[in-house]
Amino acid sequence: MWTRRLSHLTGGLLLISALACAPTPEPPAPVAEMPTLPPEPVVTYQGAETDQERVEHGELILDVDDVRKQLHAQHHPHGVLETRRVPGSFEPPAMDEVSHFALSKDDLVVINPGPGEYVHVMEGQRHGYQNLTVGITYTAPGGAPPMHTHLGEEAHVLTAKQKVLYALGDEIFELEGPYIVNIPPMVPHSFQNLDDEVAELVVIFPTNVWEYDVLDYFPFADD
Fold first, then answer.
1. Which tens digit of pLDDT belongs to each residue from 42-79?
2. Domains and CATH numbers, the chain
3. 131-to-122, 209, 221 alpha-carbon distances in Å
4. Sequence-ordered list of residues with C-beta below 8 angstroms from that of 189, at least 6 positions apart, any chain
5. What does pTM read for this prediction?
6. 192: which of 17, 70, 144, 208 fits an S-S bond (Cβ 3.0–4.6 Å)?
7. How far apart are CA 214 and CA 207, in angstroms?
8. What is the DSSP string of 86-121?
9. How far apart are the C-alpha atoms of 144 and 115, rounded to whole Å?
10. Going by DSSP bridges, is the β-strand pair 163-168/80-85 parallel, antiparallel, or unpaired?
């Protein structure tokens, strides 16, 4: 009888020892949460001021004349669809108050050039500048403007460490900030945010008018 009890006791001790030595299962890896994006801006101009104006996505849409079409044909093989500007009338500031010199982003006109792409536009002629226009983008993940051109040169500045896909002329390439991109006059270009957070690019033009021409193709895949 004692032998039987000792056998049961030994078996129990061995079971307890085996359980104690078994590896502790690792907890499941936490599921990565997508970052919460700031709300999309609201465009400033929702409709045309007059029957003669066509305003869409906060932008004034103009037909392209033959002279402008010929200019495009000299620089690239793509068709040009329309010209876009900032709509609305304005009076230049007297430049006699601090608020005329120091602008908040909320003071700027907002346009929506493409899906997931908004721009706060500081158009120089509206704010006392002679040869400068600046935009601050809200470029959502995957957001991009249409392929387009400008009459003058442009610079893009991104200070955050984010990835952006560029189409510049015939080249498509990826950059990670901080960076500055030189975009020459009349060179077709676009960009797409590859990051999972909103990108704020600063775009700079040596002119006091915001204007660009939209082309008839888009260089990035829909996904």
1. 999 987 765 678 999 999 999 999 999 999 999 999 99
2. 55-215 (2.60.120.10)
3. 12, 8, 36
4. 147, 148, 149, 166, 167, 168, 169, 183
5. 0.83
6. 144
7. 19
8. --S------S-SHHHHS--GGGSEEEEEETTEEEEE
9. 6
10. unpaired
